[in-house]
Amino acid sequence: MNLARQIKQYLPRQLLELVNDISKQAAEQGQRVYLVGGVVRDLLLGYPNFDLDLVVEGDAVKLAQQVAETSQAKLLAHHRFGTAKLRYGNFTLDLATARKETYAKPGALPTVTPGILKDDLLRRDFSINTMAISLAANDYGELVDPYQGKSDLEHRLIRILHPGSFSDDATRILRGVRYEQRFGFEFEAQTAQLLKRDIPMLDTISGDRIRHELELIFKEKQPELAIKRLGELGVLPRISPFLKGDGWIAEKFDKARRLKKPTQLPSLYFCLLIYSFSEKNIEQFLARLNISTKLSRAIRDTLRLKTRLPLLGKPSLKPSEIYYLLREYEPVAIQANAIASDEKEDTPSLIVHRYLQLFLTKLRYVRTSLDGKELKRLGISAGPEMGQVLQVLHKAKLDGEVSTRADEKKLALSLSLKL
Ligand code: ATP
Ligand code: MG
Predict the structure, then answer these.
(1) Which is the most buried residue in 9, 147, 355, 392, by most CB within 10 A?
(2) How much distance in Å is there from the Cα of 349 to the middle of ligand 1?
(3) Atom of ligand 1 nearest to the CA of 38
C-alpha cells in the first residue's frame, strides 16, 4: 500500500517540506528513513497528529545535523544514544537511530543496541503502533507493516507483539487501556488474558513511570474512561489499595473539565482521584508515585479540607469567616472540594459548595484600596499598628462594610484614633 498522496494531503506544508528535506538528505548519505508510530496510526485513522517520529537505519544524529546545515530547520538537541530533535517553523520532529532492545529483568530499563527498522518496531507496545512509512526515494510512501498493525486497526484491536510484553514493561497495561478507551477499541483475546495475568507486574515499575502514565491519561479528552476501565480491571488497586475508578470519579472529572478556567487540570484530576482516601492512607500513595512536594501539598490539603467542610455548613457565615477558614488551603484543593460537594439534592453540601465557589471566584482576590504608603500619609505609623489597621480594612471590605476609598480612609482614621 502506498500512502504518498495521503502524506501530502495530511501534513501541513512546512512539515511536508521538512520531511522531504530529510528524505533527500538521507538518500545522499545512503541511509534509510521512515515515519513511524503514532503518526502512521493516526494518518490511517484520519486523525490529526503532527508529532512526527522518524526512525533512521544508520545514524539519526548525523542525518539531523546535515539537515540542519542545509535547510532552515534547527537542531534543538541531540544525544549520544542516537536521537535528535529538529524544529522548523512551529513544528518539531524527533529522529531516532533504529534500535534493538532486550530486557534483563521485568520492569528494568531495556538494554539497547543498534538495529534495523524491524527490530525497532518489534520493541514497541502494540501492533497499531508498529507501522512505518518509507521516505526513501525509490519507495516513498510505502507502508511497512510487519506485525499486522493495519489489520488490527481495521478490526479495532489492541494487540501486544509477544506474550512477555506486559511483564517486560507493565506500563504497557496503562498505555493499552489509554488507547483502548481513546479509540473505542478492544483488547484482542490473548492480550486481554495476558494483561490480567500480568497486573501484579506493576509492582516492578517505578513510581515515576507509573505517575507519568497517569499524567498521559490525564491529557486524554476523557480521562475518566481509562480510569474507570483501570478500576474494573483491578489495575488501580494494584497501584494503591484504596484507589477506585467508579462512577463518582467519572462524574467529577467531567465537571472539572467543564470549569470555565480549568487551571491546573492534571492536579485537579489527581485531587479528585484520591478524594475517597483518608488523611492516614494517602501517604502510601504519595510515596508510591513519588508525587512532587507541590502536588503532595495540594492532595493533603484536599483531604484536610474535606474533614473540615462541616465547619462551612452553616447558612449564615460572613464572607470574612469563610475567607479565614479557607485561606490556608491550596486553591486546587478548594476547587476539588467544591466539585466534590456539588450535589443537587443535599442542602448542607450545596451551602458548602456555594461558599467554596465564593472564595474561589471572589473572596481570595479581595484587596484593600489603601496601601501602607497611603496609611502613612494619614498619620498611621509602620509596624504592628499599621498591620492591625490593614487587617480590619480587609475584613470590612470582605464583608461589604466599606466599598470606596473614602470609606476606607474614614475607617482607617477612626481606627488610628482608637489605637
Ligand atoms: P500518542 O502520543 O498519540 O499517545 P504515540 O504512538 O505517539 O501515541 P508516544 O507515547 O508518543 O505514543 O510513544 C511513541 C512510540 O513509542 C509509540 O508509538 C510506541 O510504540 C512507543 N512506546 C512508547 N512507550 C512504550 C513502551 N512503554 N513500550 C513499548 N513501546 C513504547
Ligand atoms: Mg506521541
Answers:
(1) 355
(2) 43
(3) 6
